[in-house]
Structures
1.
Amino acid sequence: MQDDIAKILLSESRILARLDELGEQITRDFRGKPMTVVAILNGSCLFLGDLLRRIPLPLTVECISVASYHGGTSSSGKVELMQKSLPAVAGRNVLLVDDILDTGRTLSMVRALLAEFAGADEVRTCVLLRKRVERAVAIEADYAAFEIPNEFVVGYGLDYLGHYRNLPFIGVLKPEVIERMKGGLEPAGSR
Ligand code: IMP
Ligand code: MG
């Protein structure tokens, strides 16, 4: 799997050091409030675990599933909620966690659903990565761990065609790997 990576953008130690800071900031901001962390799966899975361990407050956790990328390296433009009901966040202060802010469609749709239909008191957004691009939807994250250039990245929860989420760092795939997998092949070392 490591052989498929062209370059590492953010090492594991750099990610975790930054999460120490982010966790402290969020802990300060949410102290004394009824807090629910709502995570958008699957991309935020590793980020969620490491961030939660750094927020020593009473809180509940809810996960929701959203499909926006339908298998490629660019956004399909359509965001779909994958379950029938919204998490119970009425009257709560929500920290909405996602892996990456790209076009902004996912975060803005989910934030609106939680604030308008699920009755959250306040919704703050938190992403691991903020891509330096012009957003299709005007939204900024309240908390962002890192800003990255407009490149397709994998690892630490982020996938390409479902793979590479388990890399402990964030990196860029070799172009030939992207092409090879488009043709239906699996990552290096799969079998
Ligand atoms: P947005 O709705 O365009 O902001 O897209 C957000 C979603 O697209 C994220 O939750 C990711 O699942 C996916 N995404 C955007 N950029 C990347 C990337 O560079 N690598 C992997 N997934 C990405
Ligand atoms: Mg995602």
2.
Amino acid sequence: MTAPEPIRDDELYVDHVYDMIVVSNRLPVDYESGSDGQTQWKSSPGGLVTALEPVMRAADGAWIGWAGVADREFDPFEHDGISIIPVPLSESELEEYYEGFSNDTLWPLYHDVIAPPSFHREWWEAYVRVNRRFAEAAARAASDGAVVWVHDYQLQLVPRMLREKRPDLVIGFFNHIPFPAYGIYSQLPWRRQVLDGLLGADVIGFQRAADAGNFSRAVRRLFGHPTRGTVIEVPGDREESRRVVARHFPISIDAAGFEEIARRPEVQQRAREIRESLGNPETIMLGVDRLDYTKGIRHRIKAFGELLHEGRLDVESTILVQVASPSRERVETYRQLRDEIELAVGRINGDYSTLEHQAIAYLHHGYPREEMVALYLAADVMLVTALRDGMNLVAKEYVASRFDDDGVLLLSEFTGASDELRQAVLVNPHDIEGLKDAFVEAVRMPKRERSRRMRALRKRVRDNDVAKWSATFLETLTGAGIIRPGVPESLLSALNRIAETERLLVALDFDGTLAPLVDRPEDARATIRARGAIERLASSEDTRVAIVSGRALDSLNEVASPPDGTLLSGSHGVELQLDAGVATIDLRDAELAKLERLSSILDDVAATADGAWIEEKPAGRALHTRKLNAEAGTALQKVARDKVAGELVGITVRTGKAVLEFAVRSSDKGESLTRLRQHVGATATIYVGDDVTDEDAFAALDAEDIGVKVGQGKSIATFRVRSPEDVAEMLELLADARDAARGAPSRWP
Ligand code: GDG
């Protein structure tokens, strides 16, 4: 047999471009060679495919990944309505990039070095090479301005490589596994390159808030980039600095799909058969994991063995079913783990099984999904004892399948799922005594308590399914998406949390946020409900309300007519009206001279068009063109922009709706918000705004603060509502929560 030809990246064949691209190590299809030698493709239905299928179909999407066979190249093809672009890997790349660097360096390192990571320079080189190949394929397949969503730790360099080739793209990255604390991460010899690779993305998603925090800290330590809340300012070489969002987006499952399978009569029948074939024990405990050292299978088996030894459980009434699906069998650590587990299972079965009753049913196989669901239905106690796990979908699948509101979930605190599934029996798997007590507690839990907990767990999983996960990620990435009316539940719980703070600053943009947008700016008025809520909020001493606007202060005072004690920021932060009166920044002589020149240039420009007029602002001038037709308005703005740029330097230009603003002193709503917070001595802040200029304010928020974007458009804010009506509702709810936190009765029934 001759050695396969080396893979040449310039031969990757892509014949079409796509608006939405998903890039992951593995494709969502498996290759099977048919008996007739024909290539056949079979879906490998995972949660990710289910979640992204509708998005992919709607957006003319393609999936880029490896087909699962080394040293084979396949042309792009269509499968079940999704375009598939296979990326080839050679056998040695498979060993070095995948089994080596991904699964024997990054995987143990990112899982808190439960197993020692191996560092090899040639593995790293293969990792760079393969990442470049994926980036190349994505760069070729992406249409102008396309959205590219890169997945997981195998492809962390792709975002940067892709941005360099295609700065026009919108790039997202999601890390499915944990991101470790700096003390551990810093062991990686290529720690800077990996962070830099990830920072090529616009949004970097993690499973838990703690992972995002670890990532941002690593960025600060290694690069010193300023970070604030979920935003990282990444300085650019040529361009201005970019804002990268790093935050958590906990992944989920197709909850309705699991419930549908569980409700099928044949699956329920199969669950009964499973129980019978195990001798109808009182309690079936179940573990389902890839055979991986992160999953805590050994700890679980040890605890179970000790309980049998101590007689707290017995094989007549209890059995442990452990499905350990084969995984990464060519990596040495995994071979050793398998030996250790099988030795432990063999010992316990030898010591405690009887001819009638087995202690542990150990199954080293993969099963079809229907069989997994039948197992979930048959299991009284589900054991998830991972030592470290990004999320753990098995926990969520068990819950989604239990439409009978029965069964107990025992869940490790070291899984991402434990952040959400608080009604599970939570355990520290390292604490074997605690684990044993929890097993017994789960086995003995009364039916009412089981149902109560399961109902709460099920609501959580149903309300936060994988479709919601992908929609939330993509909305953050692109700013597009359906915004439902009302106040989303996640925002409501954030409001309840922030209402507990000592000194709260409620900072609100005016036009488009408190007041619906109108044709004539002088007609804008805050909605009656918003005004009412602001008055309630402002009436207490520990809450301050600020209105932060691009309007000049005079105009803002006129349209907003705010209640006493409201703080105002006008002209994008140039003018501030605080408790002691109005503070306008003092312009330096050079700025005053510029302002004079600016004024005369713009007066000349405005004089050339009927209906154009100039508004005077403390540190600038605004050219209003809304009385002109759109074409004439744009043309006039261009003339003004060119003339100013030709004569003056250091002028900040902002485009608004039929208005072009020039300022001699740059200041923005972010700086203004920072001054307001200091003035108030705020212990937490909520900022609400609809405009691009509000993004500076969102960027100034800290992690415990709340940013709410109103309406569509790209934003770094964590929350979104649809319209000023919803802002009003939100402010009412905030006022209620603030009253409740202080123990005052709500004024609303
Ligand atoms: C990574 C992260 C994160 C397992 N055996 C069989 C089978 N499975 C399915 C389960 C579940 C999936 O595989 C395993 O997902 P987990 O989340 O439990 O764990 P990882 O494989 O380690 O996944 C993890 C996840 O990515 C998603 O972001 O949650 O933390 O480590 O869906 O049901 N499915 C079938 N037969 C089997 O034998 N059909």
